[in-house]
Write a structure and sequence with these properties.
The complex is a heteropentamer of chains A (about 625), B (about 500), C (about 180), D (about 100) and E (about 500).
Chain A: H1 7-54, E1 63-73, E2 76-84, H2 86-109, H3 116-135, H4 139-157, H5 164-195, H6 200-206, H7 212-229, H8 238-241, H9 247-256, H10 261-268, H11 270-275, H12 279-299, H13 305-325, H14 329-356, H15 374-388, H16 394-409, H17 411-436, H18 442-449, H19 462-477, H20 491-500, H21 510-532, H22 542-545, H23 550-596, H24 603-624
Antiparallel strand pairs in A: 1-2
Chain C: H1 2-22, H2 26-46, H3 50-75, H4 91-112, H5 134-143, H6 147-168
Helix pairs in contact in C: 1-2, 2-3
Chain E: H1 19-37, H2 45-71, E1 74-76, E2 81-83, H3 85-112, H4 118-135, H5 139-157, H6 164-195, H7 200-210, H8 218-235, H9 243-250, H10 253-278, H11 283-306, H12 311-335, H13 345-370, H14 386-389, H15 391-405, H16 411-425, H17 429-454, H18 472-490, H19 493-501
Antiparallel strand pairs in E: 1-2
Helix pairs in contact in E: 1-2, 1-4, 2-3, 2-4, 3-4, 3-10, 3-13, 3-18, 4-5, 4-10, 5-6, 5-10, 6-8, 6-9, 8-10, 9-10, 9-12, 10-12, 10-13, 11-12, 11-17, 12-13, 12-16, 12-17, 13-15, 13-16, 13-18, 13-19, 15-17, 15-18, 16-17, 16-18
Classes of the chains: A mainly alpha (about 625), B mainly alpha (about 500), C mainly alpha (about 180), D mainly alpha (about 100), E mainly alpha (about 500).
């Protein structure tokens, strides 16, 4: 079964090609089914591969499938080849799995859109890219997928490109990501120079023999790439805007899969990170923690249903980097998986709400929706409990893992993580209350909104609900893959061990877990007091609503001094450089015009010129060259 | 190999076509066009055949033909092709039929087509010449058809642009001509005078002499590339040229500069090229960043693409002077990639102009809604230009960067930021042109026509194929690049740095 | 005696030359020219060039100056030129520099290399102090070494004749370059 | 004693140089084309004088032969020159050299 | 007394060797006599007769060339003329120019109402002067040749009786020509004074004897200076070039082309003869001057051409610039003056002269046609729309202009390449680069004319202009010039060999 790993990306590719050729003819909804089928098939193959791997001995669980020589030049020899090992297959599993669910969901969500088939075209292309990313045997193939998902993200964010904001958001996402890509590329260059190869096997093997500074450089430049893709400080700004895309996109790309690519990359090169100077992991951990806290504070004050989730995603990704920085790769992957479950669930749930609310996204215009969309509400609540870290939901276990690791690294980081956990519980509770409880505020909405005719929020069709239910189930039991009770129950850690190294000891940290659970409950309680029982005024300062003005500052800089600098270059080009060129032309003509006045037409002047020439020549010959 | 003079034919067929077209009666313009198309297609077929017949295990010049031309000066009609020039020939052979089939001059087809074919002959000749004199002849002669194409069929500022182009390039060539002659005489010693590239490459010049000579050559090529700050002719020429002219100018003609730097600069004067590399690397990096920034602020779509060429060509120069097999192979490859994608971009912009009679970005809006297929093709080409992996633009750029990193680390790190800026200016332009709700003027924008699609399809095909499977190209380019580096090694104490090999 | 002749002839020459360039009336200038030409003729005699002296008087002073006067009379261009006016500010200064420069540099050259002038081995054709008459020596040189040059003078004269014929054709009634 | 001094060739050459210089100045300052022509004749006479003087010093008849040719040339030049002047003065009576400056720049 | 005379033994005369001169002279005399006797003026006859004389001269020269190759170079008529390949090259060049000029004059004279044999006779006589200048072995003979050429030019310039410009140009040329001739002659006198002879061979012998001692003799150096002035005037080197634009513009257009070709060839022939063959001892002294003149000439010529609006004037300044290029060749030749191997300087200059002569005659032949009746429509705007109305004529002009700009595959490039390689061979890199940069400036001017022909939009009133006529023989002249330009551009080897033969002495 391992030899057919290539089928995993090939199936979405086939879907892409088929839809490209026949998409219009297939139309709505057949194109969607085709895409889903392809993604589902990929999932099936992945499962097969997974079990195949599982059946092997631990040390044989790494398998390289070489397709063809891609970029062979001199000592650089890059193959297009896939690496099937526990890490990549794990990623594949939830990428294809969740991907299939979201494909399915999107058939319902995108129904009636004039560009229905194109949406699935992009979606399949995304699945292809994402699979290349995780399956890549070397950094270049990963980079191929890396940029591919970036491109798809661009295409999908600006899917409704008639909206100016969507177009801008797509561009912003791409360009910001490119900053990270630059880091990734430089990291590759360092790796190539130090090891002569780009394959992970080679690089990781050489990690301990290369200079520490090189390892640090590779790690940090990779981390820069990860920051871009995984929306960490300071490059997170594109993700909130990316919510302009259709909600399935947000769920798939901007919650479950693509944004976790950075974490995946860091885990992939974990030996290099291990070989790097100690400040490198610390930096990663600090950035992760800071991002987690920072995004959580912003999420507290958002009113757009998807923006809350977006900031939440950033915050959760911060957790994962905190884990990476603390050396707890398994914890990072664990959280990535559980996060994929519940965040995809939450996004799809919000999508169902938006769908049912006729594309209304402002939570202040919602409320009491649990009555009209019960299934959505129920699944959303499951997601909420999971993300808030309420045991025994999935989020609790993975988050707890991370906090434990952070505590190991530094109590300060742990404290930050804990505060973030509190805030997470708080803002998620706030969201649930605002959307599903309280008064129904959508009736007043429709006057101002000028909505078309009667406005009745409604439950979504079954095709959208099935994924919700499945994901809710996963969000409940997802934690089961890595329970910290004994080393037997830490299945994921064992599974990943050949890739990310030995797992951390977790004994004697029950107290910390209890603290985390209590903190989550405190957050929930506080939110209930404020938003459900109105016992206190909501704390939604403007500075948080505006995301600490970070985005605004960046934008003001880009539109202001940045743009002026660019304009200055253009001005310089047109005026100074081109001016110099034209100036030479003008100079020649000007000089000629001046000399021209000497050509008076008067024969005596001409004779005088000859006379002067004579005297000069005589002077040269007689005085200079003569026997003076 | 073969005594069939295919390279001579590559030059003579379009030249004969030009004469035939010029002599053809004007009464039936469609026949004229057919004749022109046939001769360019035939040339293209020859170039394809050349690539097929090319022996990729042979790093030396192939299909060599050598005939004495001007005996008293020791000048021969000496043609040959190696991996460095092979794909440039193919590019020329392919782009011309596309341009001839795909673009229509607004007046006097016959003359336009004749000039086009003459241009093709000149370009082909430049790429196959192995004699300095012969190369110079072709290098210079291409100016004439290009001048007339721009001045005769261009837009409002065409005469200014064409004149600027002509004089600018000629100034560069002025230095090169002196350099060519001086090279031949200084290398002459006791032997007979010769302008043969291969003979001259054996000569050893005194250090300072070699540097001066290199400078003389390099100025000409730097103008052609163009390297900052000698680039200002380019935006004007590209913008004012008719679509076909822009395609050829950007697609093929700029490559004369980079090709010349490799073939004549580095090959003849390795020491000087090594000695001055910091200068070139710096200028290349400046070009990459500067071109991108200038492109960002352009209001004219064609001008934007033109400035993007400055940036892209900067990568090639970086690759050439970083002098590793990866970077040089990447540079050679980028020649082709840039030719294909920028050529396609110019075609697309030309199609926009044909429909809307404006190139101003501000006049265009929301085209994706009314012409999704057009927008889709534009998107693919644009992504290739941005350097998205999986498309051709990436391979060349990446190879340049990774190779350059070995010898010019910090230049490369800065140059790599060019990929960010490339995304910025192209996507911004795309957004302004294709995104949004189309206004009244753009609501009736016609979708891609069949003929246009037929013209673009091969280019898009090349873009995707090369991006996914560049090996056939790399296999043919690399041996010649390696040989060039070996030549440099022989002449100087340069040793190509290799990455630290990983223990098996 | 020789000195006296030289000084007198020299004064004639210079006076005449200055007259040519300073007399505002063309007829006066022409007559000054005659003075110079006579002076030169005197010096020719002094330098053993009797034949040339004769030709100088007959052809130059006689024919050529008469031709000048003829043209002056014929065309009635005997209007005096106002030499006080000089439309070009620098012209006279430049003229002075050029004149002074030429005189100074050539005189300096002549004086500084006075020992080298005329010391080369004599050509075979003939000597100026040949016991034979000056005319005979000259003639022999003319028809042997310089025979081609002599023939060329005939071409020159043909050109002069053809040229005058061509130029003397009457101008047409309607010049094409004058707008009606 | 001055009277006893014999004028050497150099004296002649200096005299000729002065004459030549005066002729040069004349061409530069006079506006009447006829007088300019006369000044050219002055220059030619200066040259002739030089020829004759050095011929004497060289004791070579060739210099005198040359003077003979120069005289022919001068005659031909004058004839043609006067022809042109006549032609032009018929069109533009009393034109000076300064008036003939339509062609310029 | 007379009986006592020894028998005068004139120099032996090789009549066949003189036949080029004799053919030209004979043709001139026949024209004058027949022209005077024939009352009716048959069309074409004078022109074609002149053409025939020119062709005959060329054919004779080819035979003589072979004779020289077989029998070696010699001198003629008592050492007055040099009989070598150099002479033949110059003669052929002059004869070829004569043929083309005569062809383009035919219709011009009829159009302007100036028919008559005199102009052709003057062409032929002037050609004699030119040939003499290029083959002289004696300063006096050279001077006479120069005067023959110059006086013919004075007359021809002034010969368009209907145009006051023509007469103005005639008198300007005459006064300045006489003025500079006087300097030239003075220079001869000085050289004669020191060397004791005007014959080149004797001058060289004489200097060989005296030079070590009198290396810095001021008098002889002053003579060299003045000789350069005279020659510089003839070749129109800056600052002795001022007459050129005015005379070229004012003279009848075919005469201009004659001056630009034959005049320049003869003057440069004379310059090479004097500087390289007669005064090799002073090459170190005059080489910097030639260098300076060359640089000034190319730069000023090109620069001034750029701002002109009259095509004849443009071409006049461009001819100044081209003279500068030939001077580059002369400068290269000066490096080798007096050495057994004269190098590539002289051949390159000769080649340049020949190729440029054809170009300039061709270009002015086009101008002749475009100038229309009255010979006054020579403004840039007169060329407007020529590409539409007369595409072949415009194409021909384009080729000729591109050649003058030095674009490859035209003769102009070969010419430029020749002088550059000669300069580079002598390590005169600076002058080569300056020359090339100046040629870029000059290219702008050729582009302007091309733009006017092909691109400038027609204006109202263009239709009312007199239509440009392309008479047969003028057309033939242009076609020949264009054909030659391209032929040499593609296949120059034989001409280069021929030019190189000019310096092989044996």
């Amino acid at each position: 079964m391992l030899d057919v790993v290539w089928l995993i990306p090939a199936l979405p590719l086939a879907g892409f090609v088929l839809i490209l050729l026949f998409g219009r003819r297939l139309g709505d909804p057949k194109a969607g089914y085709l895409a889903t089928l392809m993604c589902g098939a990929a999932f099936a193959v992945t499962v097969g591969v997974f079990f195949d791997l599982l059946s092997k001995r631990t040390e044989q669980r790494s398998h390289i499938i070489r397709m063809f020589s891609w970029v062979p030049v001199g000592s650089l020899n890059v193959d297009l080849s896939f690496l099937a090992d526990p890490l990549s297959i794990t990623m594949c599993l939830f990428v294809t799995g969740i991907g299939t669910l979201i494909h399915l969901y999107a058939i319902g969500y995108m129904h009636g859109d004039p560009r229905f088939s194109k949406f699935f075209l992009y979606l399949n292309l995304f699945a292809l890219s994402m699979l290349l990313l995780v399956l890549g045997e070397n950094m270049l193939v990963t980079f191929l997928g890396w940029e591919g998902v970036g491109t798809c993200s661009y295409l999908l964010i600006s899917f409704w490109h008639e909206r100016e904001s969507a177009a801008t958001a797509g561009k912003k996402a791409f360009v910001t990501n490119r900053v990270g890509d630059w880091g990734f590329m430089v990291a590759m260059f360092f790796a190539f120079q130090a090891t002569g190869t780009l394959s992970y096997g080679g690089i990781n093997t050489a990690a301990h023999t290369m200079a520490q500074s090189t390892a640090t450089a590779i790690a940090l430049f990779c981390f820069l790439g990860a920051c871009g893709k995984s929306a960490q400080l300071p490059l997170y700004i594109w993700l909130p805007d990316a919510m302009e895309g259709p909600t399935p996109v947000s769920a798939l790309i901007h919650a479950a899969t693509m944004v976790t690519a950075g974490v995946y990359l860091m885990c992939r090169i974990s030996p290099v990170l291990g070989a790097a100077s100690s400040y490198a992991p610390t930096l990663i951990a600090v950035v992760g923690a800071a991002t987690a806290l920072f995004a959580a504070t912003i999420a507290v004050a958002q009113n757009d249903i998807k923006r809350v989730l977006a900031y939440s995603t950033i915050s959760q990704l911060g957790y994962m980097f905190l884990a990476v920085g603390s050396g707890a790769y398994t914890a990072a992957i664990f959280h990535m998986i559980t996060h994929a479950f519940f965040k995809a669930l939450l996004f799809l749930g919000s999508g169902a709400v938006i769908h049912g609310m006729n594309h209304e996204q402002d939570m202040r215009r919602m409320g009491a929706l649990r009555k009209v969309m019960p299934i959505t509400a129920a699944t959303f609540i499951v997601g909420w409990l999971a993300i808030a870290g309420v045991p025994p939901f999935a989020g609790f276990w993975s988050k707890d893992d991370i906090l434990l690791a952070a505590y190991d690294k530094s109590p300060v980081l742990w404290a930050v993580g804990l505060v973030t956990a509190l805030l997470t519980a708080y803002y998620m509770t706030r969201q649930v209350i605002m959307v599903f409880y309280g008064k129904a505020r959508w009736d007043d909405a429709h006057d101002e909104h000028g909505a078309h005719g009667d406005f009745h929020p409604h439950e979504s069709p079954a095709i959208m609900l099935v994924p919700l239910v499945v994901l809710a189930g996963l969000a409940i039991i997802g934690g089961g893959i890595n329970l910290p009770f004994s080393s037997r129950t830490e299945k994921l850690a064992h599974w990943l061990e050949p890739v990310v190294g030995g797992h951390e000891s977790l004994t004697g940290k029950v107290s910390l877990a209890v603290i985390a659970a209590v903190v989550a409950l405190i957050g929930i309680g506080a939110a209930i007091m404020i938003y459900a029982q109105h016992k206190a005024k909501p704390i939604e300062p403007r500075v948080l609503q505006n995301g600490w003005y970070y985005d605004a500052t960046v934008r003001r800089f880009m539109g202001g001094p940045g743009r002026e600098a660019f304009d200055a270059v253009a001005w310089y080009d047109a005026t100074v450089i081109d001016g110099a060129v034209n100036g030479v032309g003008r100079l020649v003509r000007g000089t000629a015009q001046k000399i021209r006045t000497v050509q008076t037409g008067n024969v005596r002047n001409y004779a005088a010129a000859i006379g002067v020439g004579v005297v000069l020549l005589l002077a040269w010959f007689v005085v200079v060259r003569g026997n003076l | 190999m073969t005594s069939f003079p295919i390279l001579t034919l590559l030059v003579l067929v379009p030249a004969a076509g030009a004469l035939a077209v010029a002599a053809f009666s004007t009464r039936r313009p469609e026949w004229t066009k057919l004749l022109a198309l046939l001769s360019s297609v035939f040339t293209g077929a020859l170039s394809v055949w050349l690539v097929v017949a090319f022996d990729k295990s042979n790093a030396d010049f192939q299909f060599v033909s050598k005939h004495l031309w001007i005996k008293p000066w020791g000048i021969s009609w000496h043609l040959g092709v190696d991996g460095i020039s092979l794909f440039l020939l193919l590019l020329t052979g392919v782009l011309f039929p596309i341009v001839i089939a795909g673009t229509d001059p607004h007046q006097n087809h016959r003359r336009y087509l004749a000039w086009m074919l003459l241009l093709e002959a000149g370009l082909m000749g430049s790429f196959v010449s192995l004699d300095l004199f012969l190369f110079f002849v072709f290098f210079e002669i291409v100016l004439v058809p290009m001048y007339f194409l721009i001045a005769g069929w261009g837009y409002e500022g065409r005469v200014y642009a064409a004149t600027k182009f002509f004089l600018f390039t000629m100034t560069g060539s002025a230095f090169m001509l002196v350099g060519v002659i001086a090279t031949a005489f200084l290398a002459k010693g006791r032997g007979p005078l010769t302008f043969d590239l291969i003979e001259l490459a054996k000569a050893d010049f005194a250090t300072s002499t070699g540097r001066w000579l290199f400078f003389a050559f390099a100025v000409a090529f730097a103008v052609k590339v163009p390297i900052f700050p000698l680039h200002t002719w380019l935006p004007d020429a590209h913008t004012q040229a008719p679509t076909g002219g822009s395609v050829i100018l950007a697609g093929v003609m700029l490559k004369l500069g980079t090709y010349g730097l490799l073939r004549f600069g580095v090959f003849l004067f390795p020491e000087a090229a090594r000695w001055s590399r910091s200068l070139w690397l710096t200028l290349a990096v400046i070009g990459i960043i500067y071109g991108a920034i200038a492109a960002t602020m352009q209001k004219d779509l064609k001008r934007l693409v033109a400035y993007s060429s400055v940036a892209h060509l900067g990568f090639i120069v970086l690759g050439i002077f970083a002098m590793t097999s990866q970077s040089m192979t990447g540079g050679v490859m980028q020649n082709i990639n840039h030719g294909v994608s920028t050529g396609a971009l110019f075609l697309l912009v030309g199609m926009i102009y044909d429909r809307r009679h404006t190139r101003q970005i501000a006049d265009l809006k929301g085209l994706q809604k009314v012409a999704p297929i057009f927008a889709g093709v534009f998107m693919v080409v644009m992504l290739s230009s941005i350097g998205v992996p999986g498309l051709n633009g990436f391979i060349g750029e990446y190879l340049v960067l990774i190779g350059s990193f070995l010898t010019a680390r910090w230049w490369t790190v800065v140059a790599a930021t060019g990929v960010i800026l490339a995304a910025l200016y192209l996507l911004w332009a795309y957004q302004r042109v294709f995104h949004g709700e189309p206004d009244d003027a753009n609501r009736t924008f016609p979708e891609l026509k069949l003929r246009e699609a037929a013209v673009l399809l091969p280019l898009v095909g090349v873009i995707v194929f090369t991006g996914v499977y560049p090996k056939p190209m790399l296999d043919r380019i690399e041996p010649s690049v390696k040989r060039l580096i070996e030549h440099v090694t022989e002449k100087t104490n340069y040793v190509e740095p290799q990455p630290v090999a990983v223990a098996p | 005696m020789q000195l006296f002749v030289f000084i007198c002839a020299g004064l004639m020459i210079l006076a005449g030359a200055i007259g040519v360039i300073t007399r505002s009336h063309p007829v006066h200038a022409a007559l000054s020219l005659v003075l110079t030409l006579f002076g030169v003729a005197v010096l020719y005699v002094e330098q053993e060039a009797q034949f040339l002296a004769a030709v100088q008087v007959i052809v130059y002073a006689g024919a050529i100056v008469v031709l000048f006067l003829f043209v002056i009379m014929l065309l009635g261009v005997d209007k005096a030129e106002d030499l006080r006016i000089e439309p070009f500010r620098l012209q006279r200064k430049v003229a002075a520099i050029v004149g002074g420069g030429v005189i100074g540099l050539v005189a300096f050259a002549a004086i500084s290399s006075r020992d080298n002038i005329g010391t080369a081995a004599r050509a075979a054709a003939g000597a100026t102090n040949d016991p034979d008459s000056n005319i005979r020596t000259l003639a022999r040189d003319l028809f042997s070494d310089h025979v081609l040059a002599f023939e060329l003078t005939s071409v020159l004269l043909v050109i002069a004749v053809v040229g005058t014929v061509l130029l003397a054709r009457r101008a047409p009634k309607t010049p094409t370059d004058v707008p009606q | 004693m001055i009277a006893a001094a014999v004028p050497t060739t150099t004296w002649y050459l200096v005299l000729a140089a002065v004459l030549f210089g005066i002729g040069t100045v004349g061409v530069l300052v006079r506006r009447n084309p006829l007088i300019m022509l006369m000044c050219v004749e002055l220059m030619l006479n200066a040259v002739n004088l030089t020829f004759v003087a050095v011929a004497r010093k060289l004791n070579d008849i060739g210099g005198q032969t040359t003077v003979f040719f120069v005289m022919v040339v001068a005659a031909a030049e004058v004839v043609v020159g006067l022809g042109i002047i006549v032609a032009i003065l018929r069109r533009k009576p009393n034109a000076t050299a300064d008036d003939l400056a339509e062609l310029k720049g | 007394m007379i009986a006592a005379d020894p028998v005068l033994l004139g120099p032996s005369v090789n009549w066949f060797a003189l036949s080029p001169l004799l053919i030209l002279l004979g043709a001139a005399v026949v024209l004058l006599v027949v022209g005077a006797l024939m009352p009716r003026r048959p069309p074409h006859v004078y022109a074609l007769f002149t053409v025939a004389a020119g062709l005959a001269t060329m054919i004779v020269c080819f035979f003589l060339w072979d004779n020289i190759t077989d029998g070696g170079a010699s001198t003629l008529v008592g050492g007055a003329l040099r009989f070598d390949v150099f002479t033949m090259f110059i003669t052929i060049t002059i004869a070829a120019s004569l043929v083309l000029v005569a062809l383009s004059t035919d219709d011009y004279l009829r159009r302007e109402g100036l028919e008559g044999p005199e102009v052709y006779a003057l062409y032929l006589l002037a050609s004699i002067g030119g040939v003499i200048m290029g083959s002289a072995n004696d300063l006096i003979v050279l001077f006479l040749g120069l005067e023959i050429l110059s006086i013919s030019f004075y007359v021809m310039s002034a010969s368009h009786r209907k145009r006051i410009e023509s007469q103005e140009s005639g008198i300007k040329y005459f006064i300045l020509g006489g003025f500079s001739s006087a300097f030239f002659l003075y220079g001869i006198a000085m050289v004669y004074g020191t060397a004791g002879s005007t014959n080149f061979s004797k001058i060289v012998a004489s200097f060989n004897a005296i030079v070590p001692a009198q290396r810095h003799d001021a008098f002889i150096l002053a003579g060299v200076a003045l000789l350069i002035v005279g020659l510089g005037f003839k070749v129109a080197a800056v600052p002795f070039h001022f007459w050129t634009p005015d005379v070229y513009q004012g003279a009848p257009t075919p005469v201009t082309s004659f001056m630009g070709s034959v005049g320049k060839v003869a003057a440069f022939g004379a310059m090479l003869r004097v500087l390289i063959y007669a005064l090799p001892h002073w090459s170190d002294d005059y080489r910097p001057i030639v260098w300076t003149l060359a640089v000034l000439t190319v730069v000023v010529g090109s620069t001034m051409a750029v701002v002109q609006t009259n095509v004849k004037r443009m071409l006049a300044f461009s001819s100044v610039s081209h003279a500068g290029f030939i001077l580059i060749g002369v400068e290269a030749a000066a490096h080798r003056a007096g050495q057994p191997d004269l190098g590539d300087g002289i051949p390159s200059a000769l080649l340049y002269m020949l190729l440029y002569s054809v170009l300039v005659v061709g270009s002015f032949a086009v101008v002749t046609m475009v100038s229309r009746t009255g010979d006054n429509a020579t403004d840039l705007s007169s060329f407007r729309g020529l590409g539409k109305s007369h595409p072949f004529l415009a194409f021909g002009m384009t080729v000729l202009l591109l050649a003058q700009a030095g674009v490859p595959l035209t003769s102009g490039f070969v010419a430029k390449f020749g002088v550059l390689q000669a300069a580079v061979e002598e390590h005169s890199y600076a002058i080569a680069i300056i020359g090339m940069v100046a040629s870029v400036i000059a290219a702008f001017l050729y582009l302007r004319i091309m733009v006017s022909m092909w691109i400038t939009e027609p204006e109202t009133g263009d239709a009312d202009r007199e239509a440009v006529r392309v008479p047969l023989w003028t057309g033939v002249a242009v076609a020949l010039a264009v054909g030659f330009t391209l032929l040499v551009g593609f296949y120059p080897g034989w001409l280069i060999d021929a030019a190189k033969a000019a310096v092989i002495t044996k």
